[in-house]
Design goal:
five-stranded mixed sheet; 572 residues; alpha+beta; 45% helix; six-stranded mixed sheet; Immunoglobulin-like; DUF4012
């Protein structure tokens, strides 16, 4: 009996020692991973992908060592010991998650360095389509690894896990939960990019340069355009022009759907109004139809971008652009030059001004390409998309679905998936360029309660900051008085979910009548206001319904001056 007990004690001691050694090995390896991750992140942010690849190799080796240590049989058996086992299981979950997440990083960074090391677009304006195709299985595989890592971390959770452990692992779990949706989007979008870049044959892009000085819900009127040919990743500018080429053309409004045709009618068929609906996909369909009617090539893809979006694409640190009579223009001043200074300089010579706008817009876009679509440009593109100053439409349904998933399509979307949000749009209804000076301020007052029924409000304040002296072409062309010539007139549109009740709409505190319709599943509320200089106009929508459905955020309008959005006192 003593011999048996001695052997058992020795086995127990060996087991404890084995678990302890495995735990120490795993702990040290995971600590090295934790220490290296911030370094790796900074190297990636600095675009030093070669150094990041070296760091990723060490991180992957350490994570794999921790995973092996905690996968040993003595360690796994010890996970069944009360209390102690909870701690071991938590560490095991962390080690397994670390190994899953870090193992593909060296290969992914090596491919990324090939694809974007010198910018997404090379010096000869070619995108590495083959590299993007190599990235696709890495991204789709990583999506599966993130799902497994989340499962491993959740499996290690328990009520008895020490705070010292949970405080290290819980933030990782939260970050992976946040990463799941973007990875799903990337896995859906990335396989579509090669075809969009001409891997399967030449594609024709139409870049429609819009002008929010004469505002529309999708940026503004189309004033100039450029055609790009994209084949095998190579991008070339083939043609530019102005809206003069499109005045006699008419889009097929029915192509945008019966609902759109009923809402906006044949007015949407002309070049000034193809962007008048709530979504850029309809604007893409109409623009494609319009240029076809004008005898121009039918585009596969339409890109809508305005001077604000161009400035955002180039970024604040970009070298000034040489713009003829205006000399070197900083990107921060690009919108002002294109939407105001050009009117002052060219005066009544409208043809010369439009030719300048077309040439300048094309030059700015060329500057974006010549930068190689750097990380800064991609960050600027995201800013432009989020603010509504850049949107992309594809004529192919599967590509358009991917663009919608990526959030770059500029569409209203499904109100059931949008959450508690409203959207505001403006449409210039008198011929002028006065919207350049509109300063919108939006205040959202959400319900105080988060459940049950409640009330909320959305308030839009429009301030017209137009100066005393403006060119005649900029002024309100139909006005009779000096003050009237500086007064903007706009239709204000609000899109809210159809299950949100509309109690009242006021302008300047006085109730007003509105047109209430439906667009793409949303409730569309419209009214028209005059905005004289120096006298703010306040439009207020009072809403009611289920507290969780009432708007808590607002997007738009896509004015030249960014809207200021604030949160008001909650509504009881």
């Amino acid at each position: 009996m003593r011999v048996v007990l001695g052997v058992l004690l020795l086995l127990l001691l060996a087991w404890v020692v084995a678990v302890a050694v495995a735990g120490v090995q795993a702990g040290r390896a995971l600590q090295r991973v934790a220490d290296a991750v911030p370094v790796l992140e900074q190297q990636v942010r600095d675009e030093d992908l070669a150094a990041a690849g070296t760091t990723a190799d060490r991180v992957a080796d350490d994570a794999a060592a921790a995973d092996r240590a905690t996968a040993q049989l003595p360690y796994r058996l010890a996970e069944h010991v009360p209390r102690v086992g909870d701690q071991l299981a938590a560490v095991r979950g962390g080690a397994r998650a670390a190994a899953l997440l870090t193992q593909p990083l060296p290969d992914a960074l090596a491919v990324a360095e090939d694809v974007v090391g010198e910018g997404l677009v090379s010096a000869d304006r070619t995108v590495d389509v083959a590299g993007l195709q190599r990235l696709t299985p890495i991204v789709t595989g990583y999506r599966e690894r993130v799902a497994e890592a989340r499962a491993a971390l959740h499996a290690g959770e328990g009520p008895h896990v020490l705070d010292a452990i949970s405080e290290r692992l819980d933030p990782v779990t939260a970050q992976l939960d946040d990463l799941a949706d973007p990875l799903d989007t990337a896995a859906e979008v990335l396989p579509r990019l090669p075809a969009l870049l001409g891997a399967e044959g030449a594609r024709t892009y139409l870049v429609a340069f819009t002008n929010p000085a004469e505002i529309r819900p999708v940026q503004g009127i189309v004033g100039a355009y450029a055609y790009l040919a994209v084949e095998g990743g190579r991008i070339s500018l083939t043609r530019t022009g102005t809206d003069n080429d499109l005045y006699d053309a008419r889009a097929d409004v029915a192509a945008a759907g019966a609902e759109f045709a009923a809402l906006y009618g044949e007015d949407a068929a002309i070049v000034q109004n193809v962007t008048t609906g709530g979504s850029a996909d309809e604007a893409g369909v109409l623009t494609s139809s319009l240029v076809a009617d004008a005898g121009l090539p039918v585009p596969d893809v339409v890109v809508f971008v305005d001077p604000v979006g161009l400035g955002q694409l180039l970024g604040p640190d970009h070298a000034p652009l040489q713009l003829g009579p205006f000399g070197d223009v900083a990107t921060a001043d690009l919108a002002r030059v294109l939407m105001y200074d050009a009117y002052v300089t060219y005066g009544a010579d409208n043809d010369a001004r439009k030719l300048f706008l077309a040439a300048t817009s094309a030059a700015a876009f060329e500057a974006v390409l010549s930068d190689g679509l750097s990380t800064a440009a991609l960050d600027g593109a995201r800013t432009a998309v989020d603010s509504g100053h850049l949107a992309v439409w594809s004529s192919r349904a599967e590509e358009q679905a991917a663009l919608v998933s990526a959030g770059v399509a500029g569409v209203l979307g499904d109100p059931a998936q949008a959450g508690p949000v409203a959207r505001i749009g403006l449409t210039n209804t008198e011929p002028s360029k006065l919207d350049f000076w509109l300063q919108p301020a939006v205040e959202v007052s959400a319900p105080c309660a988060t459940t049950g029924t409640g009330r909320s409000s959305v308030q839009l304040t429009l301030t017209n900051t137009v100066p005393e002296d403006i060119p005649a072409y900029v002024a309100n062309a139909t006005a009779r008085t000096a003050a009237g010539k500086r007064t903007a007139q706009d239709t204000v549109s609000l899109w809210v979910a159809p299950w949100v009740g509309l109690d009242r709409v006021t302008v300047g505190g006085q109730p007003v009548a509105t047109a209430v319709d439906a667009e793409e599943g949303w409730r569309l509320v419209r009214l028209t206001v005059d905005v004289p200089p120096g006298a703010p106009v306040v439009v207020r929508w009072e809403l009611s319904g289920a507290a969780e459905d009432l708007p808590r955020t607002v997007t738009g309008p896509t004015t030249a001056i960014a809207p200021a959005v604030t949160t008001g006192a909650c509504a009881p």
